[in-house]
């Protein structure tokens, strides 16, 4: 077994603390990865604090993993020692259902194996995520990080990047399309960069105008405050596609009113509350309310290659592991520009308190 250091939530709503555990020795098709960086997704906070229910503890969060291959199992063909690789939100799936075969592993009918807060397919090992020194993953669930992308700023692409890339690609963001992103956080800022690179006309819908200069620098053509009611009259019937990254309740009917005929409002943020929608908000304009969940392995690789081609990474604030609890509070307060990334070298220093 491989001794691994990490930070874990031992219980819901408790601060994360040092945790030592073991990873399996590599099986035939496994890749052992030395984790260099891991992004902090708002989903980490939701799960570590058990805001979605059913969290499994102790939990080492983290599914925006970037590192270097340290060892490979005897049958591995895709990666070799020294390769720059990433791991996203899942580490396995059934590999046999129609969705797995189509590269939509995130919708596996037997359920994908989440990178953490899940049982592995042996039914007894708790999966543990990227706030740790090492991870062992089957080569088919590992991504290649292109050489031109720095590992720290590329880490958030593994969740925030693909979560926005997938719906933008599926709903065909591109030249002539008007796309709005609700919420300029970790996911939202990637959405702005990606939609801009795809050639769409991009609008940010933020709570205030505080982040306007950033939004425009990231690629937004327009920026509006949703706290200003005039925004909703001014922009009525404007967008082909709106992607909502916010995890707080919003006025869904008001946002549906911003869509053109046949426009789609896509949910990626996960509020705890149900989504109340009036039928008229949908039928007046044949509008769709849809959802999207990360992306499959093939599409995630396509996204990483697209980012290399367009020189896109995340805007990050790098922290040491012992700052993770403070970082969680700042994520909840929308006080991050625009993604925290943990430098895993900090796990091996005395400050990590092992
Ligand atoms: P984040 O960095 O906290 O960004 C969320 C943004 O929402 C904030 O920056 C803020 O933007 C806005 N916001 C915050 N509180 C708000 C409020 N009370 N009312 C209106 N807007 C508010 O979070 P994230 O990491 O991007 O994740 C966002 C959500 O997506 C989370 O629920 C996460 O679990 C979910 N998620 C889903 C998927 C998926 O596959 N569907 C994948 C990853 C994450 P402004 O300051 O600009 O208003
Ligand atoms: Zn995430
Ligand atoms: Zn499957």
Automatic annotation (TrEMBL):
Database matches in PROSITE patterns: ADH_ZINC (PS00059)
Domain Enoyl reductase (ER), residue spans: 11-342
Gene3D superfamilies according to UniProt: Medium-chain alcohol dehydrogenases, catalytic domain, NAD(P)-binding Rossmann-like Domain
Protein name stated in the entry: Putative zinc-type alcohol dehydrogenase-like protein
Required co-factors: Zn(2+)
Family, as annotated: Belongs to the zinc-containing alcohol dehydrogenase family.
Keywords (A to Z) from UniProt: Metal-binding, Oxidoreductase, Zinc
InterPro entries recorded: ADH-like_C, ADH-like_N, ADH_Zn_CS, CAD-like, ER, GroES-like_sf, NAD(P)-bd_dom_sf
CDD domains to which the protein is assigned, alphabetical: CAD1
GO molecular function: alcohol dehydrogenase (NADP+) activity; zinc ion binding
